[in-house]
Specification:
The chain is an alpha+beta fold. It has a single domain, classed as Heat Shock Protein 90. Helix 1 runs antiparallel to helix 2 and helix 2 runs antiparallel to helix 3.
Length: 140
């Protein structure tokens, strides 16, 4: 695994890796999230973080026509950890709110919404990043 660590305004490095745009890349993406969170002493966020990145990778693999994706784990502020997946599609993902009980797919963003403090999409000229943020500190 080749992990790129780059300085961020918070003084914490960001972790990122370019992967094939396929569901199997979720395993490597989960390891990247584990590595970043362990390096930052945020092991309590690993379970939610790995589930979030799994869903974001699955969405990119299913809905974008990208050959590659970039998984990014950063600390955009002292309060949040951001987990994102970048692809070359400009299609904005929509969260399904239908309650069709037979539907086995299409609920990834519902999980992301439930697990994160906030999530969103940043559009770029050439694609987008879908991200979710977890609060660094647990509420007591």
């Amino acid at each position: 695994m080749t992990v790129t660590a780059t300085p961020r305004p918070t003084g914490h490095p960001g972790y990122s890796e370019t992967l094939p745009c396929e569901p199997e890349s979720a395993a490597t993406a989960r390891q990247l999230v584990r590595t970043a969170l362990a390096a930052w002493g945020l092991g309590h966020l690993v379970d939610d973080g790995t589930l979030i990145v799994t869903e974001l990778v699955a969405n990119a693999a299913e809905h974008s026509r990208s050959r590659l994706i970039r998984v990014v784990v950063t600390q955009p502020s002292e309060t949040y950890v951001r987990i994102g997946v970048v692809d070359k599609s400009r299609a904005i993902p929509l969260m399904r709110t239908d309650s069709n009980g037979d539907q086995l797919r299409g609920r990834g963003l519902l999980l992301v919404d439930a697990l994160t403090d906030r999530w969103g999409t940043d559009l770029y000229r050439w694609g987008k990043q879908v991200w979710g943020e977890l609060k660094r500190e647990t509420s007591s």
